[in-house]
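Q: Here's a chain of 295 amino acids. Please give me its 3D structure as C-alpha cells.
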Amino acid sequence: MKKALLQLHVAVFLWGFTGVLGRAISLDATLLVWYRLMVTAVSLWVLFAVQNKITRLPFRYMLVIGGIGLVQALHWVTFYGSIKLANVTIALTCLSTTAFLSSLIEPIILKHKFQRSEILLGFFAIAGILVIYNTHLQFSWGIIIGLVSALLTVLVSVLNKKIVREYTPQQITLYQLSGGFVGLTLLLPLLLQWSEGSMLPSTWDWLWLLVLGWVCTIFTFFLYIRSLKHISAFTMNLTLTLEPLYGIVLAFAIYQENEHLSNWFYLGFLLIALAVALHMWRLLQPFSGSRTRNK
C-alpha cells in the first residue's frame, strides 16, 4: 500500500510539471497532444520491440483499451486548452474537482456503495475551487474547459480500474496510448478547425515534447497503472488533487502566475490540501487500509 502511494505521488508530481511544459510549447492544444502521443506511441513500440515485450491482443480488447486511450487524449486536449485559454494555475486547479467527481462516478461504474466520507472529502476540494473562482471569473472559458478535462480524467481512471487486473501495465500503456494517437488522428480534421498558429513544432518545442513524452507520459503511466493494482480509483483521484498543488508551485516559480491571483486563492489552496491530508490520514488507518486493499 505504501509503495503504491509513493509511486502514485511521483507520477502526480511529474503530471504537475506537464502544465508548465504545456505553456512553454507554442503549439495549439490539439497539435500539442497529437505530437505528444506520436512521440510516446512510436517510442513505446520501438522499446517493446527491442525488449520483445509486444503481446498481441484480440481486436475487441485492443478496441476497448484504445477507446480509453482516446478519452485520455481528449482529457489532455482539454487540459492544455484550459492552459491556453487561462493559465497553468487555473487549468491545474480545475483538476482538484476529480475527488468529488470520482466519489459520484466510481460507485456507478464499478457498482459499489457510495461512501459518504469520500463525498464529504470531495466537497472540500470543491469548496477550494469555489473560493478560488469567486474572484477569478475572467478565466471563465478556461474554467469550463478545465472542468471538462477533470471529468474526462475521472472516467479514464475508473475505466482503467475495471481492466487493470486483466492486462499487464505494458499492454495497457502500449495500446492505450496508441489508441489515443489513432483516435485523435481521426478527429484532427474536426478539431483543427479551431486551431491557430504553426502546425509544426519549433526546435524548443521538440525538446519539451520529448520530455513530455518520455518522462511525463511513459514513465508516469507505468507508475500510475501499477499503483492502481493496490488502491481504489477514488484514492487515485483524491491524490491527484496534489497535481494542481505541485504544478501551481512550479507555475508560480517559473511564470510568476501568483501576481495575477488574489489572496482568496490561498484559502482555496489550503482547503484542497486539507482534503488530501485528511484522506491520507484516513487511508493509513488499519481498518481503512485493509478495506481499500480488498476492493
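Q: Can you summarize the key feature?
A: DSSP finds 13 helices and no strands in the chain.
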